Every structure is written in C-alpha cells, then in structure tokens.
C-alpha cells in the first residue's frame, strides 16, 4: 500500500468503503499514475464526488477509468458488502456490464465538449437482496482541467422515486419543452399546426387553435386548429364586435381567460353558453398573444368535459405558448422582411432605369477614394455593359475612374443631400442623367438611379448644330434686308408715301422679331458648347434701361411703356448681354399681354444688389409652370399661348446669361393679373473692377 498526503473527506461517508478503496488502490498500475501525481483538478473532482449524497459516476483519462461514490453503488454493484468493487477499472471491466452502453455517449461528450442532459433510461438497481429496474434521469457533463482540456466525464443519476415525483414532473415538462423547441426549429417550413397539435396533445386538449387579430383589430381569423374526431372545425374569420366583451377586455389587458365549467359560469350569457354547448365545449382557456403590448393573436384550448386547471399547469402552459409565440413572431417578421425585400428587388429589377446601391470608402481626411457596389439591377448591366460588379469596387473595375464621379457621389454620402446631375463616363463612353440620394440608416451608402442619355445628347448636339447653321445662314440675308428697308424708310420719309412707310415699319418689326429669334438660337448654341464670352465694363444702368425702353416703345407702339429708375446706379457687367436679357423680358411681356396695357421697367438697390424688374398686366403664369419656366424649350400651357409664337429658349438664355454675370433671375406671377420678372446683379464698387 502506498502512502499519500491526500486527505479524503469523511464528513459524508465516515465509513465509506469507496473512499477507502480509492485511498488504498494501487493507482500506479493505471494510466493515471500515483495519487501524488494527480492534478489538483482531478483531486477536487474525486473529492466533490465523494462528498455528495446523490449517485455520481465518473470516467477519467484515455482508458475511461471508473470512479463512483457510495450512493451510486446500488446501480453499479450487486452488493456493496460482497460484490467486486469497480473503482479504478476501465469501464469494460467494471462490474454490472450495463455501464458499457454509456461508452458511445462518453465518447460524444469528450469529442464535442458538450453535455448530454436530461435523458431517461431504465437502470437495474440492487435493493432488498434482489434486482429491479427503475427509471432514472441522467446527465453527462465534461470535466475540464486547468488548461481547459477535457479530463473526463461525470454522470449524475436521479431516480424517479415517489420522493422525486415533483422533480420527475418538472423533468417531464423540461423534456416537453426540449421537444417543443425541436419542433419550433422547423416552424419556418410551415409546421405551425404541428406545434399547436403537440401542445394540445401534451395538455390532452380536445380542441386547440391559433387565431390572429386582423383588419385593425376588427376581426379575428383562426389560422390553424386541431381537434378530436367529431368536433367541428372552427377555422374562419369572425367579427370581434360579436365577441364576449369581458373575454376581449381580459385578453387585451394581457390576462388569461379561463372557465373550468362553461355551463355553470356567470361570465357567459345564456346564449353564449348555448353556443358552447352546440360546439360540445365545457371548458375553455384563452391565452393572449401580444406584440409590444398590443393584442395580436390568441391561443385557445377547448375541452368536452369540465377541467380543473392547476396554477402550475397554467404557468407551464404560458411558458410553452410564450416560447412558441416568440419564435413565430420572429419568423413572421423575418418572412415579412424577406417578402418586402423580394417585392422591392423585383420592383427595382423591373425598372428601365439603371439602379445601384454603393458604399463609400473615405481616406483619413474624409475624402472619397473608392466605392463598392452593393446591389445593381438588370438595367444597370444593360446601360453600362458592366457585369458581376456586386462586391467589387469601382477602381477594381475602372482604375482610371474620373474624379468627378467620386466627388458627386461622395458629396451625397458626406452631406446626406441628394443630387441630380449629368455626367460623361469615359469608362463606358456614355452620358448619364443621374439622381443620387443617401440610403437612410446605412452610413456611407448611396442609392443611385440613372439612365443613358447618350443618344439624347447626340440628338441635342445635332439639333444645335442645325440651329447654329440655319441661324448663321439666315442672319446674313436678314442683315442685308434690314439695311435695305432702313434706306427705303429714310428715302420715303422725304416723300409723301405714308402707306408704304407704314408697311415698311411693320416689315421692320417682323425683321426685329426674326433677328431676336435667330440671336437666341446663336446664344443657345454658344451656351451649350460653353463658348459664351462676357465683356464686362462699368456703365450707367439707368441710361441703358432708358435706351431699351425708348427702342421698345418705338417697336411696340401700341403698349404703354414706363420707367421707374434709380439713375445713380452703376454696375460692372456686360452691357450688350444684359441689354439682350432685358429686351427678351420685354418681348415676353408683349407676347403675353393685351395691346394697350402697361409694361413697366424699374431699377432699385436691394441691400448690396441691383434689382431690375419688367412687369406686365398679361395673362400671368401658374405656379406649376413657374417651376419650369426657365428650362430649355419649355413653353407654358398651350391653351394659354396658342396664338403666341416662340421656341421656349428665350428665358433659358436669359437665365444662363444672368448666372454667367454672377446674378439671379426670378419672377412673381398670378394667373389673370400679370407677371414681374426680375434680375439681380451685384452693385458696382470701385474695388471690384478687374
């Protein structure tokens, strides 16, 4: 016998033969070595096993060396006094060969590191000089050493004795919850009714069902129902206005509604008791199903006979239903999210405009340096020719991407402000009309919708080339024609040919209008090509406006022109271009006003800016038209201007010229009252001239 300093506990088993066996056994013959060489964790494990009063069996090491305490002896040995002791032996050589059936489970615990819990089996037990089988619950748990490695496996036994009946019922409930959890794992596959049926069978229900509250809480729909044979199927949609008021109030407040004996209950009216009797129902229980405190569903259980519920049963039923409802609502929410995603994905993919979601990468200075494609639709591939871009960055696809694209999209990601712009992409050699907006709730992500406008751009260029060519071709003979008319007019003034002189005056007006149109086309062409030049000088604004007013009064002598000018104002601008803007505004006033009405020209100082206004008493412009009046080729409601000529480029040219001069242009107008068009430019200060 070897000596050891290891002290075995004597408080629980002062006469323990198992403790003595462990102390006296020659452990050097095993793979565990002498007791002195055992780790502190192994010693603590064996000590704790001997101290407890319930059966514990332990396997240690590679050979599954068997340990157990005195409480486990009736399950391991035939008789503690006479039978061979199995402590220290491998499982395969231990007495009571039934322990070998645990080998596969012990192996599983050691390999996985996970416990096998709450299992049940029959065990032979030696008692009263004979064997008999008892039902025991057992659990197998891994034992870890100081380094976190698996040292062995511990098995704890609990017998289903009369003393343990309450514990056994709890164990049965636990087993049911485990089975319920396994069934709920497949809820997404559509097995809601199977779970409802499982709960009903466990509580021996004659009918159990699930109902959803729908239509803004006005109706209830029984979506699944399981009942015994001969009981009617109650699936369907019901009006909650016909529902038992007390029942509905209790459920709405989150309370269970229970009636053990319906026919004797004062909670129901005679008519309601009659309806339950017709349904062969004597006992009912309703459990509210809430989402964020709002009643969204009901689980109901019916019994043909009166049933007395224990509080513990109701608590456990509520636990089961709560777990089921939590899983079901989570799955429904996920399915709804997936449906929404599919809907919007299909919607996006059906667009004929290209769509993409991109995610930005910024440098330390918060400058956009690259972006990744998160999602694109089919039109994206058609309009760009790019495929399989999701997950890739633009620089992986186009290493030489233009900085303008990064800047435009990056500003949206940084500022959170949407942008619309037109841009040329050298990588695809196409023009695009683009709208970009931040994706709410996703920092750094931008939603982009764009369409290929290359053909439109080419068409516009061809149109502008044609207009430019036609305008130049027309301008030369018109200039000559006007010169001839001017000469004729002067000669005729010396004679008394009033009718001819009047006709020549009218011809001159038409030439003026045609010249204005042609100049508009030429300016538009210069604007589109970015070649419009400005020749800025300091000049007296009042004198220029007086000249414009005088010329207009001569040309349009059937209108009443007036001026209200601040003659002290000077500006630093392009006189010819600004005069063209004012003339265009006057022409517009004439077009949309009745002869004999007033047209007023005014100028004044508004803070540090000069405001020039042209007002009329014409037909006015609607609010919807005012949003687009300065767009190229835009004309107001055709019914209002059916007798007015023009191509819709005059105001567009005015806007571009004013912006080029560093100013702003706008209007105030009301239908039937007239319009006021205004231009604001910086006032001249001597330090601003360059």
Question: Concise description?
Answer:
This protein has 690 residues and is α+β, with helices and mostly antiparallel strands.
What labels would you give this structure?
23 strands; elongated; 6-stranded antiparallel beta sheet
Describe this structure in words.
The termini are far apart. Helix content is 38%, strand content 26%. The strands form 5 sheets. It has a 6-stranded antiparallel sheet with strand order 8-7-6-11-10-9. It contains 18 helices and 23 strands. Helix 5 (165-184) packs antiparallel against helix 6, helix 13 packs antiparallel against helix 14 and helix 14 (498-528) crosses helix 18. The protein is α+β, with helices and mostly antiparallel strands and 690 residues long.
**Beta-strand percent range:** 25-35%
With strands numbered from the N-terminus, the spatial order across the biggest sheet is 8-7-6-11-10-9
Could you give the count of β-strands?
23
Morphology: elongated
Query: Major β-sheet, in short?
Result: 6 strands, antiparallel
- Rg over alpha carbons: 47 Å
EC number: 2.7.13.3
Pfam family, one: HATPase_c
Protein name: histidine kinase
GO molecular function: ATP binding
List the helices and strands and how they pair.
Elements: H1 17-24, H2 40-51, E1 56-60, E2 65-68, H3 73-76, H4 103-112, E3 116-127, E4 130-144, E5 150-159, H5 165-184, H6 192-202, E6 207-214, E7 219-227, E8 236-239, H7 245-252, E9 257-259, H8 270-278, E10 283-291, E11 294-303, H9 311-350, E12 354-362, E13 368-376, H10 378-384, H11 394-397, H12 403-415, E14 419-425, E15 430-438, E16 445-452, H13 454-493, H14 498-528, E17 537-540, H15 541-555, E18 560-564, E19 570-573, H16 575-591, E20 598-606, E21 609-615, H17 623-626, H18 650-660, E22 664-670, E23 674-682
Helix pairs in contact: 5-6, 5-9, 13-14, 14-18, 15-16, 16-18
